[in-house]
Structures are given as C-alpha cells and as structure tokens.
From TrEMBL:
Originating species: Nonomuraea turkmeniaca
Top-rank taxon: Bacteria
Name of the protein in question: Enoyl-CoA hydratase
GO MF term list: catalytic activity
Alphabetical list of PANTHER family matching this protein: ENOYL-COA HYDRATASE (PTHR42964), POLYKETIDE BIOSYNTHESIS ENOYL-COA HYDRATASE PKSH-RELATED (PTHR42964:SF1)
Length: 253
C-alpha cells in the first residue's frame, strides 16, 4: 500500500510530506500512522539534521478526516498527541512549510513545529466550535504559540484569518509571497544545519524552560549549563573551528 506520507533526505534536511491531496491531507488513521513512521525515522537517522514538514496540493491540512470518522463511528485522531509530542520534543529543529491553507487539527501540527512559514495566500481557522466540538488536543501546542486574546478570538468565533494575521499573533514565524516560500524555507534549513546538533537540542529546551524559572534559579542553572557547554566536545570543536577559520565538523560539506 502506498504511503500517504513521503520522506526525502538531502544535505542534512529530511522533508516529510503529507501526500493525500484527494481529501486535502485530512488526518486519517492511515495518514497519522504513516506520519508517525516518517517522523520516527527522521529522528533516528543521524544524517538528518533538520526536519521540514510540508504537504502536496493546495491545502496543508484540513483537520480530522470527518468522512472516515463518520464511517468509523469514533474519533480517528487518537494518535495526534503522540504526533504533536514527536514534533514538539524533537531534538532536531522542525520547520513547517505550509503549501497552503490549514484548518483545525492541521493547526496543531503547525504549532508543534519550531518554525512555521506560509504563503501570504494561505488562510487559517479553528472551526471546531462551529461543528459543536472543541479545539481540545490542538490547544496544547497552539496556546503555547498564540497571543491569549487572539486565541480567545479565533477559538471562540471560528473566524477565518489570513497569513499576515497568523504571523502577527504567533501562529507563524513568517508569511511570505508564494514565490519566496521555498527560498525562505531553504534559508532557515541552511542556517539550522550550521548549528551543533547538541547545542540545537539544548537550546530548543532552553527557550521553553528558562522563562518558567525563578530569576535567581535561572541564572544559577544557566551559568552551570554555559560552563558545561564551553568544555563539551562539541563546544571545544566549535571554538577551535572559529579560531582555525574553518567549518566545524558537523557543518563540513
């Protein structure tokens, strides 16, 4: 059976592509299983330094596969928390390249990635309340990204908003003209592969954890971390490469 998710590896970047355009890349049981397998592979592959999540067609992801759910008589997105966790806790940077519109559950994927870049033509909506359901599972990653007032506005109204607004409220990192989408994503990937793998993984955690620490404790723990990283094998290699005016081993061609 053909997979609904493709994966490609080149120059340290694994591109994971939702490939079910016939139903607007809806989150079906099969697509979620294939996505889980692709992400697990990318996380385990040592030559994959950065993950790019994208999709085929004109819609990035339309949310839960409601047709499949109707036929099954039960929710089909039970595995979504595991997918969100793989993306959120990935030690490798994850860039979401939105090829187009996203709705509902698809926005949980967007928010779970470290970066999200979309064309200005894309639109977004949390449509759950209009169906009499709630944006429950996706709220965990989404509310960590969105401005609180914007979250209340769009969660409660289900109103459609554009890519510029999505960037303004924190859902997207960038909203760019469609013709600049691929070059912008490539630029992010190229910058990210220059970082030390351990340093990137630790910095991902730092960005999320440090704001929650009491000020004095934060300074104490970060002083310890700084000393540890300067004397680590990766830190020593990076500093030596700087003085030798050469790329560090992890960034060598």
């Amino acid at each position: 059976m053909t997979s609904l998710v493709r994966k490609d590896l080149a120059d340290g970047v694994t591109t994971v592509t939702l490939d079910s355009p016939h139903n607007r890349n809806a989150l079906s049981v099969r697509l979620l299983a294939d996505l889980h397998d692709a992400l697990t592979w990318a996380l385990a592959e040592p030559t994959a330094r950065v993950i790019v999540l994208t999709a085929t067609g004109t819609v990035f992801c339309s949310g839960a596969d409601l047709k499949e759910q109707k036929e099954a008589g039960a929710p089909v997105t039970a595995s979504l928390p595991e997918i969100f966790t793989l993306l959120w806790e990935s030690p490798k940077p994850v860039v979401c390249r939105l090829n187009g519109t996203a709705r509902a559950g698809g926005l949980g994927l967007v928010a779970s990635c470290d970066f999200a870049i979309a064309p200005l033509t894309a639109s977004f909506a949390f449509t759950e309340v209009r169906l009499g359901v709630v944006p429950a599972m996706i709220s965990v990653p989404v509310l960590r990204r969105l401005d609180p007032r914007a979250a209340a506005e769009y969660f409660l109204t289900g109103e459609v908003f554009d890519a510029s607004r999505a960037a303004e409220i924190g859902l997207l990192s960038r909203a760019v003209p469609e013709e600049e989408l691929d070059t912008t994503v490539a630029r992010y990937a190229e910058m990210l592969v220059k970082g030390g793998p351990e340093a990137l993984a630790i910095t991902k955690r730092l960005v999320r954890e440090v704001p929650q620490l009491p000020f004095a404790e934060g300074l104490r723990r970060m002083a310890e971390l700084s000393a540890e990283r300067f004397t680590s094998e990766e830190g020593r290699e990076g500093i030596a490469a700087f003085w030798d005016k050469r790329p560090p081993t992890w960034a060598s061609p």
